Amino acid sequence: MNAQTSAVRADAAAAAPVLLREDVGEVAVLTLNRSEARNSLSDELLAALSHALAAIAADRSVRVVVLAANGPAFCAGHDLKELTAHRSAADRGREHFRHVMDTCSAMMQAIVRLPKPVIAAVGGTATAAGCQLVASCDLAVASTAASFATPGVDIGLFCSTPMVALSRNVPRKQAMEMLLTGDMISAEDAYRIGLVNRVVKAGRAREEALELARKIGAKSAAVVKLGKEAFYQQLGMNIADAYAYASEIMVKNMMARDAGEGISAFVEKRQPRWEDR
Fold first, then answer.
1. Do the strands 147-149 and 125-127 form a parallel or antiparallel pair, or are they unpaired?
2. Strand 64-69 relative to strand 27-32: parallel, antiparallel, unpaired?
3. Which of 29, 127, 142, 239 could form a disulfide with 146 if both were Cys (CB 3.0 to 4.6 A apart)?
4. Phi and psi (nearest 5°) for 189?
C-alpha cells in the first residue's frame, strides 16, 4: 500500500460517522464505526452514543436496542492517544480527563436507565471501557471470536470505572482477578462467570442478538420498561426493602391494561394483543 492510498483510506475513515444506526423493524441497531481505532471511545463517539440513546429513549417505535461494532474489535476502551494529547495543557489534562470520565459514566448509566432493553452483540475483543460497555448492557451475546479484559493495570491505569459495571455483573473474585491481572478471558469464560448470556458461532453475534431482541420486542413494552427499572432499583436495597418495593411494583403492574389482557389471553388460550400500557 503506497502513501497516497493510505491517505485516501484515512480521509475516508475520518469522513465516516463514528456511530451508525439502523432500525430493523422495532429494533434499533447501533454500530460502533471506528474500526481503524478498534472502536475506542473517543470524545466524538461518546457524544454520539449519548445522543443516540437519548433519541431512542423518546422513540416509541423502538422496543429493543442492539449494540454492535464494525471491525475485528468490539471496543478497545478509551482512546488513549486522544487522552494523552491533552497532557500538554497547563493542568496536565486533568479537566479533560474528568470531562471524559464523567461523560462516559453518564453514557453507561443512560444504558441502564434506558426504558428499553439493550443487548450487546460482541464479535471481537472488548477491553477496559469496552468491557464496561458490555457489562452495562442488559444482555450480551458473544461470538466464539470475542474476548474480554480490563487490562488497565498493565499500563499503570487501574480500570476503576469499568470496575463499577464489571463488579455488578460477575462474582467478586472473578472481577478482582480480571482487574488485578489484566488477563484476557475467552467468550466461554465470560459466559461461565456471567458476563455474557450466550456464546454463538463466529460471525453470528449480531444475528443472534437480533433474534433475542425480536423475542423481547414481542412482549408488552410498558411491562418490559417497568420490569427493567424495577430490576436495577431493587439491586441496591436490602432484602426487606426490595420485597416491599417489588410488591408495590407488582400491584402497579396488575393494574396495567396489558396485565389484564395478558392474563385473559392466557386463560383463553390465545395470543395477547398488547396496548403497551
1. parallel
2. parallel
3. 142
4. -70, -35
* CB-based contacts of 36, cutoff 8 Å, min separation 6: 10, 13, 71
Residue 13 pLDDT > 90, yes or no? Answer: no
Alpha-carbon gap, residue 72 to 79, rounded angstroms: 16
User: In this predicted model, what pLDDT tens digit does every residue of 128-170 receive, in sequence order?
Assistant: 999 999 999 999 999 999 999 999 999 999 999 999 999 999 9
Main-chain dihedrals φ then ψ at residue 234, nearest 5 degrees? -75, -20
Count CB atoms within 10 A of the CB of residue 17: 12
Q: Phi, psi at residue 125, to the nearest 5°?
A: -75, 140
Nearest to 30 by CA among 66, 82, 58, 59: 66
Nine-digit cell string for 154: 498493565
Sheet with strand 64-69: strands edge to edge: 19-24, 27-32, 64-69, 118-122, 139-143, 198-200
| Three-class DSSP category at 122 | strand
- How far apart are alpha carbons 137 and 117 in whole angstroms? 8
Residue 31 to residue 19: CA distance in whole angstroms: 6
pLDDT, residue 203, reads: 96
What gap in Å lies between CA 117 and CA 254, rounded to an integer?
21
Which H helix or E strand runs over 140? strand 139-143
Give the three cell numbers for residue 8: 485516501
Q: Is the pLDDT of residue 9 over 90?
A: no
Residues 6+ apart with CB under 8 A from 221: 60, 63, 116, 274, 276
Q: Give the per-residue pLDDT at 15.
A: 78
Take residue 145 and report the three cell numbers written for it: 471470536
In this structure, is the dihedral angle defined by the CA atoms of residues 50, 78, 125 and 180, taken in order, positive or negative?
Answer: negative
One-letter amino acid of 156: G
